[in-house]
């Protein structure tokens, strides 16, 4: 069996008087036990609970009296009604009333004859505390309802049935009847009836037991116990119990059944038999207001429920986890407060988690731990050396029964130990950011770090990169033991020891230490770039630049924008230091000029000089790839073109000594010596497209006359008669004239053109020039006409305003100062407001309403 739900202890042992009788029925009310015998005696005992020598609870009985009813027939049924201090007694098919205290009959003659059985309504529809409702089964095909008071049994209603009733149950307005042929449920208020199922009462003892509101338990053929409700449906699966049952009762969540040899206990939660108690000669069994008594013909026994927590513990010890949880969930029906139940229940869930953990059911264990809000230290503690070294946590013995540590759980099998550790890591990750981790962050993070370090998990880096509360000294030893150097540096960084972190990381980058998870020198550069300890930064600048100037300079170029400026990080200081690293100093100057956009001549000049020196060195080296040289020259040309802050003459002096004509042209352009620049592009480079582009670039943002002047200079260079190869420039000159991008003063250009050029050669230029001239003339004419129309409209509106009459008399006053007008001059606004001249501060704004009038609208003086 699964569990010991009840213990059988003696309640009334056989005494001298009882030895002459046979017990037929019993009833209990409070401390009063009433026994009905086969000799028509009613015996009254008082029961007192006592502690037995074995520490368990039992009863001590005392006989208070007895009563002989005088008919020499067995008493078949007793029922005490404490509210009335009466006992209902069924003997010789007659139902009578006795006084509970002295067992004397009620002399009013209250009795019902022809009764085969009766029952009380435990869920009456009425609320009179001084009466009870009963239902009686008669020998005839009828059941009757009565209201019982202290001295009367008042007939209420007859309910006809198809066959005589053998057993009945009553709940509210529902009567469950076991007739000689079938079971049925009758609603005595509506008259409705529901046929349940047939049976043979010769083979199956008809038993009816109310187990809840509108729900009954019935004995059925084939040793089944069927549940039925008001609709006739079965709300629960049936029970499989023993043959030849003589009595059944219900004590949540158990159904207790009795036959000639055993008392069996079934749970209505899973319909399984939980306990069997040998018990021969049983005559009657029932639950009396929570107290269970069972009787043989000679004595009375009590069935003491084993406390639900003890039952749960027994189930857990037998690995019946689901049954234990289900039983515990129903424990709230045992009268516990919500707080007490919750406290007990979460402890049971925690125990269930460890039971499943021991059985390697890891998913179930995780669910129970989460639902039970387990103190995670209880779980960590079974893993050797995972709790912080400084922890003084003590394990709870009730949670760790038969569990020494995880090695014992896994039978020292390496693979299973690994599974258990993976389970712990996943569980800690789940709860790390939940309320279960409050106050336990150190234990959780320390355990995670040790697990990650042992397995060299990538999560180790993520843990240390976040807010990690692990115990510092303990984790340092762990990381050193497992040689997790990169993570060790992260731990030092998290705790503010940046120098130790850098020592470790630089040794890894230099190859002195090994760690496959180390991301490389870029990580160190980024760390130094964001480090506020500038003294420590400078300590590692040389190390970084010696390994990569391009990466090392990022220490200075990728610093936080909101970082306070210090002397050690001033640009001049950095530039002076970087002179030993030419590529780094260029990158830093580019950062200052193009990113920070510092407008200092020395930075711009310095960068231009370094660009120029780089190009010159590359030109001297014959092995320099042409692509690299062109890229360097492009950077130089861009710098010379976009910046206006460098020392032009200094750069020009160096460039003039070379064949770098493009750069030289840019510099001449900066000096406004455009003809020199253009001659270099045309005569030296013969790059006519570059010459036109020069005019466009240098005239950008200037007025049209400046643009025309540049293109006129270019055309003049093309047409220069002193140039010995001037014939070669006729074609580019004509192309320039016909270009849509070029802009000219046509009169001046015509004066420049050679007299021997034909009109056909200039046809396109002249056609476009004539068209542009006409367009400009027409546009000016339209603009002039529009202005004239606008002017006329203004005059018209002014005349209309001035034609309106203004009545001025002695009662008229100024709208601003409210004084009368003493002079003939005044101001009238377009909205009709009239003021003194000196009160009109602004003729475009009404001084009263603040309304703004268009400056084109007349609002002048009238007189």
UniProtKB/TrEMBL annotation:
Domain CNH: 20-292
GO cellular component: cytoplasm; membrane
Cellular localisation: Cytoplasm
GO biological process: autophagy; endosomal vesicle fusion; intracellular protein transport
UniProt keyword annotations, A-Z: Cytoplasm, Protein transport, Receptor, Transport
Transmembrane annotation, as ranges: none
Domain CTLH: 310-365
Ranges occupied by CHCR repeats: 559-723
Protein's recorded name: Transforming growth factor-beta receptor-associated protein 1
């Amino acid at each position: 069996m699964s569990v010991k739900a009840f213990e059988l202890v003696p309640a009334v042992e056989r005494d001298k008087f009882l030895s002459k009788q046979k017990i037929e029925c019993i009833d209990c009310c409070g401390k009063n036990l009433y026994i009905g015998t086969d000799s028509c005696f009613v015996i009254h005992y008082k029961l007192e609970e006592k502690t037995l020598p074995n520490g368990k609870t039992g009863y001590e009985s005392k006989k208070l009296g007895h009563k002989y009813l005088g008919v020499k027939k067995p008493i078949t049924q007793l029922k005490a009604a404490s509210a009335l201090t009466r006992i209902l007694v069924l003997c010789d098919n007659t139902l009578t009333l006795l006084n509970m205290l002295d067992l004397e009959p009620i002399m009013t003659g209250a009795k019902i004859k022809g009764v085969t059985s009766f029952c009380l309504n435990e869920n009456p529809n009425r609320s009179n505390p001084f009466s009870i409702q009963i239902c009686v089964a008669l020998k005839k095909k009828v059941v009757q309802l009565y209201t019982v008071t202290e001295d009367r049994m008042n007939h209420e209603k007859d309910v006809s049935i198809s066959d005589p009733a053998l057993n009945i149950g009553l709940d509210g307005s529902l009567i469950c009847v076991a007739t000689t042929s079938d079971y049925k449920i009758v609603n005595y208020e509506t008259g409705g009836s529901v046929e349940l199922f047939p049976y043979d009462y010769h083979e199956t003892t008809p038993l009816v037991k109310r187990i809840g509101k509108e729900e009954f338990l019935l004995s059925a053929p084939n040793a089944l116990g069927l549940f039925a409700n008001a609709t006739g449906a079965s709300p629960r699966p049936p029970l499989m119990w023993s043959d030849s049952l003589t009595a059944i009762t219900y004590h949540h969540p158990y159904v207790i059944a009795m036959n000639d040899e055993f008392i069996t206990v079934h749970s209505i939660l899973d319909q399984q038999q939980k306990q069997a108690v040998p018990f021969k000669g049983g005559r009657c069994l029932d639950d009396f207001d929570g107290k269970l008594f069972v009787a043989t013909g000679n004595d009375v026994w009590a069935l003491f429920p084993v406390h639900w927590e003890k039952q749960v513990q027994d189930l857990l010890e037998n690995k019946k986890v689901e049954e234990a949880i289900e039983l515990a969930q129903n424990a709230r029906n045992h009268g516990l407060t919500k707080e007490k139940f919750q406290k007990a229940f979460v402890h049971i869930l925690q125990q269930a988690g460890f039971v499943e953990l021991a059985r390697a059911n890891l998913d179930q264990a995780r669910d129970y731990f989460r639902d039970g809000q387990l103190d995670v230290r209880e779980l960590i503690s079974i893993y050797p050396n995972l709790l912080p070294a400084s922890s003084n946590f003590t394990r709870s013995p009730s949670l760790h029964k038969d569990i020494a540590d995880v090695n014992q759980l896994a039978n020292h099998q390496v693979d299973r130990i690994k599974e258990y550790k993976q389970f712990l890591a996943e569980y800690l990750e789940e709860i790390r950011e939940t309320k279960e981790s409050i106050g336990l962050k150190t234990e959780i993070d320390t355990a995670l770090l040790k697990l990650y370090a042992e397995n060299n998990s990538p999560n180790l880096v993520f843990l240390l990169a976040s807010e990690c509360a692990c115990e510092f000294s303990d984790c340092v030893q762990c990381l050193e033991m497992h040689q997790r150097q990169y993570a060790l540096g992260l731990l030092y960084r998290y705790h503010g020891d940046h120098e130790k972190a850098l020592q470790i990381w630089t040794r890894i980058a230099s190859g002195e230490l090994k760690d496959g998870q180390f991301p490389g020198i870029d990580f160190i550069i980024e760390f130094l770039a964001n480090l506020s300890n500038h003294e420590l930064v400078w300590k590692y600048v040389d190390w970084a630049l010696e390994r990569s100037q391009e990466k090392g300079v990022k220490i200075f170029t990728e610093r936080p924008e909101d970082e306070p400026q210090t002397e050690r990080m001033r640009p001049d200081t950095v530039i002076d230091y970087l002179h030993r690293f030419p590529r780094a100093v260029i990158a830093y100057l580019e950062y200052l000029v193009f990113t920070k956009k510092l407008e200092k001549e020395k930075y711009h000049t310095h960068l231009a000089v370094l660009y120029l020196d780089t190009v010159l060195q590359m030109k001297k080296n014959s092995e320099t790839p042409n692509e690299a040289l062109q890229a360097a020259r492009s950077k130089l040309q861009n710098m010379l073109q976009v910046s206006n802050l460098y020392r032009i003459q200094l750069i020009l002096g160096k460039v003039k000594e070379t064949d770098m004509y493009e750069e030289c042209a840019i510099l001449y352009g900066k000096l406004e010596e455009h003809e020199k620049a253009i001659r270099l592009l045309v005569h030296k480079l013969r790059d006519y497209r570059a010459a036109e582009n020069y005019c466009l670039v240098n005239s950008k943002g200037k007025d049209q006359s400046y643009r025309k002047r540049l293109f006129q200079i270019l055309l003049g260079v093309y047409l220069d008669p002193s140039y010995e190869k001037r014939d070669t420039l006729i074609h580019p000159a004509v192309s320039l004239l016909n270009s849509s991008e070029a802009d000219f003063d046509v009169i001046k250009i015509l004066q420049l053109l050679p007299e021997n050029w034909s009109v056909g050669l200039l046809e396109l230029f002249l056609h476009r020039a004539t068209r542009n001239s006409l367009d400009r003339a027409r546009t000016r004419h339209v603009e002039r006409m529009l202005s004239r129309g606008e002017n006329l409209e203004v005059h018209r509106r002014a005349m209309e305003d001035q034609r309106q009459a203004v009545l001025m008399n002695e009662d008229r006053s100024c709208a601003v100062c409210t004084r009368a007008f003493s002079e003939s001059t005044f101001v009238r606004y377009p909205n009709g407001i009239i003021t003194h001249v000196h009160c009109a501060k602004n003729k475009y704004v009404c001084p009263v309403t603040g309304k703004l009038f268009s400056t084109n609208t007349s609002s002048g003086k009238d007189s």
